Amino acid sequence: MADAAPLRLLAQDADDLAIVSAALQDAVAKVGDISFEPKARRLTIAFNRFRWEAGGRQRIRSALQLGGVLKVQARKVRRDRPAAVIELLALTFEPKDPPGGIVTLSLAGGGDIRAEVECVDAVLADVSQPWPTPRTPGHEA
Fewer Cβ atoms within 10 Å of its own Cβ: the N or the C terminal residue of the chain? Predict the structure, then answer.
């Protein structure tokens, strides 16, 4: 299944976001690839995503975009180091004032990025050709 089609996913609720989260597990990004546009209410992050759905051994450049973002907070993310690498473990949604809430991007090393959103409005799209990778992501038990 190495020739799997590029992903194009839309999330409009917590269940949809769980699917996007699974696709992005172990994706890596540079801090400089995180862009928040307050006037457009948009958070965009470019990742190198591990292609679990293609049987592994490949990464692909992907973009995650959250719409309706009111505020973004980061914890243990070195914004003064744009070349620093973050690794995404999971995306979750915590409802607050329906349909709004908090989308949390949980990062390896204990950091996170929290986006206060009007509603769940996320798009994940692969934007390059895949390339081989010698390593499969792993986690300590």
Answer: C
